[in-house]
Predict the 3D structure of the following.
Amino acid sequence: MKRILALFLVVVALSSPAQAKLKIQQITSPGGINAWLVEEHSIPFTSLEIRFDGGTALDDPGKRGSVYMMAGLLEEGAGELDATAFRNRRDALAASFSFDAGADSVAVSAKFLTENRDQALDLLGMAINKPRFDQTAIERVRAQILSIIAADKKSPRKIASDAFYRMAFGTHPYGSSGTGTEKTVTALTRDDIVKAWKDSMSLDHVYVAAVGDITPEELGKALDKLLGGLPKKGKALPAPAKVALTGGVSVIKFPAPQSVAVFGHAGISRDDPDFFAAFVMNRIFGSGDFTSRLTREVREKRGLTYGVYTWLAHYRHADLMMGSVSSANESIAKALRVIRDEWKKMATGKVTGEELDAAKRYLTGAYPLRFDGNARIASILVGMQLDGMPVSYIDTRNDRINAVTLQDVERVAKRLMKPDDLRIVVVGQPVGLKATD
Amino acid sequence: MRRLITILSLFLFLVPLQALAAGNVTTFTLKNGMQAVVIEDHRAPVVMHMVWYRVGSADEQPGKSGIAHLLEHLMFKGTKRFGPGKFSAIVAANGGSENAFTNYDTTAYFQRVASDRLGMVMEMEADRMRGLVLTDNDVKTERDVVLEERAMRVDNNPGALFTEQRRAAQYLNHHYGIPIIGWRQEVEKLTREDALAFYRKFYAPNNAILIVAGDVYPDEVRKLAEEYYGPIAPTPDLGPRNRPGEPPQLAERRLRFSDPRISQPYVIRTYLAPERNPGDQRQAAALTLLAELLGGSGLNSVLGQKLQLEQKVALNTSAFYDGVSLDKTTFGLLVVPAKGVSLGDAEKAMDKAVAQFLKEGVDRKKLASLKNQIRASQIYGRDSLSGLARKYGDALTAGLAVKDVQEWPDILQSITPQEIIDAAHKVFDRRRAVTGWVMKQDSEAVK
């Protein structure tokens, strides 16, 4: 079987998987709004992705949850339509809209048919430009959010990550959940919601990608209608967040048979010259693939977990190297011991040529396969803009991965992987695990 | 699933209800009985390759719950030709992704790769249809992984624990009442012999369906399928899937479940309901529309309008029905009460709203709008290769034919208001229902 594997690799080396034939147009609307467009006329609909830089990080002090609630209210009535009339109209058009607020951006995702595109865009434009924020809708959405907050307090995973972020970022918005707390959400007023809307949805923060049955001219016209009425300038983006994590183990008692752990320390920026080396290193170390070291050691060899992962977390204003694992209360200590040992081993920077090769082959081969489906492509393209990447990134990205050497991985691993700095937060009833604080 | 088991969501919403126009779908059957469906989509050079077996957790022997799912995990342990980890390593080295999942009626394996790698994944998938090699240690370690998976999905999640109890009460005899992942005490005792016996019995070309979706042409798929799957001998004595059926259900069941980890109480009721059957899908279509009308599109549904908007007694409402099932399925209603509203009052409000709906009949404008959305969802549905492939795989392993999948959208469009009301009257019989109160603390609970 060694021979067969080798044969496949030879084949692969000779012909890398076919490249996607993606034609991205950068357009500017008559009103000056920029967008990336891929025309795809084979299915009569369009996927549209809009992002506003900032997100819940723009919440005013004491108003945590205002941007999140605002996003939840955008489909609760606009212009002359109350919540029910708005939904009836959307359903009659068979359009799909979704509004969400994340740590760093507000997201508007839409799908609409070609046959009634203008009406669908009119309706979406109303939601974005003329949301009503009716008091009855505010109370309804507030009750739903309070119920989410209550549920989060009973979710071991959420308890762990909330505690981890609190330790990492303190009073910076990243240090608390964007949904807000029971106290802040209860106190939010309509004025707070209106301010959150003006702060977080403005033309200086907007990015757009569209994929589907629409021409550049049609998209340009649509953009002015959709976004033209928004404030030119929104609230300034927050200051960079300092990662305040210290090494150690925190245990939060929770009555559950399985413990959940979230762990990590400071990470590496996407702009760092060694970013691609770190990206390749993480594939080898903790990607969750069956070839990754952590999955091999913790799951495949020892059966201690269903899933163990690490990832490079990139926020607009901070970077982390994070991971998670869950294991029975009786075995979590052992799982974490194995992870810590692997972390130490990775910190020496030693990986084999085979590991590096396999990681590069996967990452470069999988990349073109991601550009599959209008909705997927639109979401990748808007994400690239949010991360400040040019269109040409798509063509150079694989070369930069292929350029990563064993020395690059060693250098970045030594710099990035700090076993003594690891902060581990465990939620459950772990046996044989001592908290250090 | 190896990474994600299929857990039916309580909050089903409008999903693409059909695949492509028949013109893009081609079917053929190999001489050894392996059925194949090819769905063409040439937008991107990607292909989804899936093999679905007509066996799921509901086909397990009593006392061996979880063996279908454990075997699915073990299928990644290697063969004589492709040793431990090799299959995954080769797929990854080609930029592909792969996984598998187990459901009540099916077990499926899939890889998503560049379309010029189709032959490569077929070769390996065909090899493990008969060639699996297992050691006792593989089984022991993977059983621990599955128990951790169970802890994560179920034991650490009171809502999932209750779903197990509810389904066990819903099905008096059918194995749909047993969790896909298995009861813990039975999973703990599963052995290598159990896994291999299940494997030898059910993994055969004449018990499998090949689904290939993406940038491929039917002729080329057929050639590759004949080359790789064609030589595998069928299993001659595969009988029909006769599984324990339900006796008449004559007694209403009511459950009270409490767990301190429940933050939000809710009331849920499921009724035993007919499923989609070959050539006979009208009743299931009526129930599909009924679920959408009662609790589909959030606030615009009957329950949303009455309980959330008008009476303000609910925080959330839902109605759900999935007709793709080999045997009898369920129709469900769910109400999450608003603060200060008791579960008893929430249940009463739910029953009253449904009774009123049955009396007043279907709002024709709402039905027209819903049918238009269903038509649109066929268009949106064409965007997702894996969604299309799964639609066919789910249907075919639940006893439906390609023709049934293709007729389904037209049947939905043709359903009359009266058929919806008739279907509702037939299904809403409390003697065939389980009603559950899920709460943090039960004042009446006996310690």
Summary: The radius of gyration of chain B is 23 Å. The longest strand of chain B covers residues 329-337. Chain B has 15 helices and eleven strands.
